[in-house]
Design goal:
Number of strands: 15
Strand order of the largest sheet: 9-14-13-10-11-12-15
Oligomer: single chain
Strand content: 25-35%
Radius of gyration: 21 Å
Distance between the termini: 37 Å
Shape: globular
Number of domains: 2
CATH architecture of the largest domain: 3-Layer(aba) Sandwich
CATH class of the largest domain: Alpha Beta
CATH topology of the largest domain: Hexokinase, domain 1
C-alpha cells in the first residue's frame, strides 16, 4: 500500500503544472496532474495547499521538488519572466515537507530525458547514435515563454549543468538578420537570443516582418489589428497554418535562427551525445522544423560542419518532461542517492 507520495511542479512564466506521484518498484507512477496560470508567491502557495488538500486525502508527502524558470542560488529563486520568488526553507515550513527542493526548470528537464521512451521523441537528424550512450554531453534547448538551456552528461551519475544561455547576445548571420537585430536593438536596447527564440520572440520576428514588408496579398489572413499584447506565438502559428505569408515567413526565420543558435550550443559543450529540443514550442511546430531551415542552419558551422552533422537531433514531444524530472529529483534526493548532480 502506497502511503508516501512525491509532489512535483513545473513553474514556467505562463503556466504551472503540479503533480502527485508515487514510487513503485523503482519507477514513478503518475497519480494526478493539474495545470493553472502562473502567479505570485501568495497565490501559488494557496494553490499548492488546495491541491494537496484535495488530492492527498490519505498518506503523507515523502518529498517535493519544484522546477522553476530561473536561476536557483542557495535554495532561492526568482522566476525570470514572472517575478515569482520562492525559498526552500519557507516552503518546507509552509508545506510541512522537510525534503523539498528547488531546481532550475531545465535542470528538471535534463533529469527526465534519460527516463523518456522513444515515443516521446521525434527525430530531426539521426546523426551517429553510438554517441548517445557513451557519456558524451547532451545539449538541451527549450524555447517557450522564455529560452532555457542545459547540458546533461551521462554515466552512472547524471551530471547536469543548468544554463542561462538564453540570455546571451544574439549574433545575426546575414544581412536580413542584421536588420532584424537593429529593429530589436532599437526596441529593447539589448538583443538576447530569448528576444527571438521564444513565444514573444516569434511575435517580435512577425512584427519586424510586418513593418518590413508591404501589407496585402490574397493569401493574407488579417491579424494585424491585434495589439502586441493580444498577439502571442500561438496566434502567429495559427495564422501560418491558415496561410498568412508573413506568419509563415516569421516561422521560417524562427526555425533557421533556432537551428543556428542550437548548433552554437552543441559546439560550446561539444555535445556529441545529441541535441534535445524541449519546451512548449518545438513540438507544436514540428512540421516546420522538418522543412529543412532548422537542420541547414544547425549544420552550417564551417570547418565544424562535418562533425556537427553526426550529432543526433530530437524534439521532445512529452509536454510533462520538466514535471517528471522534478519528481525524479525529489525521489532521488529523498533517498540520498545523488543520481542527479548539479555541476
Amino acid at each position: 500500500m502506497v502511503d508516501k507520495y512525491i509532489l512535483a511542479a513545473d513553474i514556467g512564466a505562463t503556466k504551472t503544472d503540479i503533480g502527485l506521484f508515487c514510487a513503485l518498484d523503482g519507477n514513478l507512477q503518475r497519480v494526478v496532474v493539474q495545470r493553472f496560470a502562473s502567479c505570485g508567491e501568495v497565490e501559488f502557495l494557496h494553490r499548492v495547499k488546495d491541491f494537496l488538500a484535495a488530492q492527498l486525502s490519505s498518506g503523507i508527502l515523502r518529498a517535493a521538488c519544484f522546477g522553476v524558470a530561473g536561476p536557483v542560488v542557495a535554495g532561492r529563486v526568482e522566476a525570470t519572466n514572472l517575478g515569482l520568488k520562492l525559498d526552500e526553507k519557507s516552503l518546507r515550513k509552509e508545506l510541512s515537507c522537510p525534503q523539498l527542493f528547488l531546481v532550475n526548470d531545465l535542470f528538471a528537464t535534463a533529469a527526465a530525458i534519460p527516463t523518456l521512451e522513444s515515443r516521446d521523441f521525434a527525430i530531426l537528424q539521426i546523426g551517429d547514435d553510438t554517441n548517445i550512450n557513451s557519456g558524451s554531453p547532451v545539449a538541451i534547448m527549450a524555447p517557450g515563454t522564455g529560452l532555457g538551456m542545459a547540458f546533461l552528461l551521462g554515466g552512472e551519475k547524471l551530471n547536469i549543468l543548468a544554463s542561462e544561455g538564453g540570455h546571451a547576445d544574439f549574433a545575426p548571420r546575414d544581412e536580413a538578420e542584421v536588420e532584424l537585430w537593429r529593429y530589436l536593438k532599437k526596441r529593447f536596447g539589448r538583443v538576447s537570443c530569448e528576444r527571438l527564440l521564444s513565444g514573444p520572440g516569434l511575435v517580435n520576428i512577425f512584427d519586424w516582418l510586418k513593418n518590413r514588408e508591404a501589407a496585402g496579398g490574397s493569401n493574407r489572413v488579417d491579424i494585424s489589428g491585434l495589439s502586441h499584447t493580444e498577439l502571442g506565438g500561438a496566434e502567429v502559428v495559427a495564422a501560418a497554418a491558415a496561410g498568412d505569408r508573413v506568419a509563415l515567413a516569421a516561422i521560417s526565420y524562427f526555425t533557421a535562427i533556432l537551428g543556428g543558435v542550437a548548433g552554437d550550443l552543441v559546439l560550446s559543450g561539444m555535445a556529441a551525445g545529441g541535441l534535445c529540443l524541449a519546451g512548449g514550442i518545438p513540438a507544436k511546430i514540428i512540421n516546420y522544423l522538418r522543412q529543412g531551415q532548422f537542420i541547414n542552419a544547425f549544420n552550417a558551422k564551417g570547418r565544424m560542419s562535418s562533425w556537427i552533422k553526426q550529432v543526433p537531433v530530437k524534439v521532445v514531444l512529452n509536454q510533462e518532461t520538466a514535471l517528471l524530472g522534478a519528481a525524479w529529483i525529489a525521489l532521488d534526493r529523498s533517498a540520498n542517492q545523488q543520481k542527479f548532480r548539479d555541476l
